[in-house]
Structure prediction request, 85 residues.
Amino acid sequence: MVSGRPIDAAVEDLLLRTIIPTELELSLAVEREVDAQAASLEAQWKLRLEQAEYEARRAERRYKAKSSRRSAGASRTQNANTACN
Prediction:
């Protein structure tokens, strides 16, 4: 009777040498793809954040400009009312 252990060990060794590099390469390719997608999403969010900050600064400038015009108009109105009294 012949023992199957040496044959099993040889088949196992061959299988591991064949499958593991392929799976490892696939895993690394998936990791690279995930990293690329994460970098792309990060860049998109950074652009959105920069756009939101720009729009907030712009809105603030417009608000302050309108506010100062309202204050100047109120001062003129008050001065005119004071002059009339």
